[in-house]
Design goal:
The chain has helices at 2-16, 35-38, 57-68, 91-96, 127-137, 146-151, 185-196, 207-218, 221-236, 241-260, 263-276, 282-305, and strands at 28-29, 44-51, 75-82, 106-111, 119-120, 167-168, 177-178. It has 306 residues and is α/β, with parallel strands linked by helices. The protein folds into 3 domains: 2-137, 3-Layer(aba) Sandwich (Glutaredoxin); 166-200, no CATH class; 207-305, Endoplasmic reticulum resident protein 29, C-terminal domain (Endoplasmic reticulum protein erp29). Strand 2 (44-51), helix 3 and strand 3 (75-82) form a beta-alpha-beta unit. Residues 205-298 form the Endoplasmic reticulum resident protein 29 C-terminal domain. Keywords: Endoplasmic reticulum, Signal.
Length: 306
């Protein structure tokens, strides 16, 4: 019965808003006469305190949130629009909750039907940030995967400043390994390879030949020549044309490294990247992109050994 009464009041004030200015779909205008009648009817009430005729990006984001919340019967989205001129409409409501003109827009979340002790929203006014804020502080909405986050000790904060959190799960270990490095391809690749014992290849790369490239940089001059010969021989054994061409490029790269040294990698990467940006057939673009991937893999192997 109480929920039904709340819904009746909701629709009444939605109609009433038609005569007072802009209609925000899903949001109810509140004042000193309606605030204490409506807010207690809902499990959670998100209220924006703002100037009498708000506008701009923040207001647009709030409107998106209001529309998204229409289907949630336990959530009220409302506005208290305050005038600082004339009769100073709704200024009393602003004063009641300590909202000053300099605070506009100020967003507060009222919980469990209480009209006191609201939670202040302090993040960026964005529809997704607002949704996360509501879910965190109330039982409204589905807290996606919160059980998994709690299970593995991942804390969810208002600003998500400690996210993302990456964990590596290994088949023979009960506890995952938490990643604490930089969020770069190079660092993540090393993490998966060293802690997981896995190969994480770049596009177009071949695991067996990546290992040969890695061993190439560990070897002395004479050993490098032998690794080059082994790589060339293995490439010739491959029947599939596309894979054969990529494997041959590993051997060709080693040959150039023997002739020109490690500086060849940066120069060749720059040259091929520039070529790939030109007007080319799809086949030629693929070939060049394959080479970029293989050269990058060589560079990462070189970095690992420096």
């Amino acid at each position: 019965m109480e929920r039904m009464m709340g819904q009746v009041l909701f629709y009444f004030f939605a109609v009433f808003s038609l005569i007072r200015g802009e209609v925000i779909k899903g949001s109810v205008p509140l004042n000193s006469g309606t605030f204490d009648k409506l807010v207690p009817k809902f499990k959670a009430a998100l209220v924006k305190f703002d100037e009498m005729y708000p506008y701009g990006d923040k207001h647009k984001e709030f409107k998106k949130l209001a529309e998204a919340a229409i289907s949630q019967p336990d959530l009220l989205v409302g506005e208290v629009n305050i005038a600082d001129w004339g009769d100073k409409e709704n200024a009393d409501v602003g004063e009641r909750f300590g909202v000053k003109k300099d605070d506009f827009p100020s967003i507060k979340l009222f919980l469990d039907g209480k009209t006191s002790d609201p939670v202040d929203f302090k993040g960026k006014i964005d529809v997704n940030e607002l949704k996360s804020f509501i879910v965190k502080y109330s039982d409204y909405g589905q807290k996606d995967n919160a059980d998994l986050a709690e299970r593995f000790g991942v804390k969810v904060t208002d600003d998500y400043k400690d996210h993302p959190v990456i964990k590596l799960f290994l088949r023979d270990k009960d506890d995952p390994i938490t990643y604490d490095g930089d969020y770069t391809l190079d660092s993540l690749r090393k993490f998966v390879a060293s802690d997981g014992g896995l190969w994480l290849g770049l596009p177009a790369c071949i695991e067996e030949f990546d290992k040969l490239a890695k061993s190439f940089f560990l070897a002395n001059d004479e050993e490098q020549k032998e690794i080059y010969k082994t790589t060339l021989a293995k490439a010739e054994e491959i029947k599939d044309k596309d894979e054969h061409d990529r494997a041959r490029y590993y051997a060709k790269t080693m040959e150039k490294l023997l002739e020109h040294g490690n500086d060849f990698l940066d120069k060749e990467l720059k040259r091929i990247t520039k070529l790939s940006e030109g007007k080319l057939s799809e086949l030629k673009k693929k070939q060049l992109n394959d080479r970029v991937g293989i050269l990058t893999s060589f560079k990462l192997s070189l970095k690992d050994e420096l």
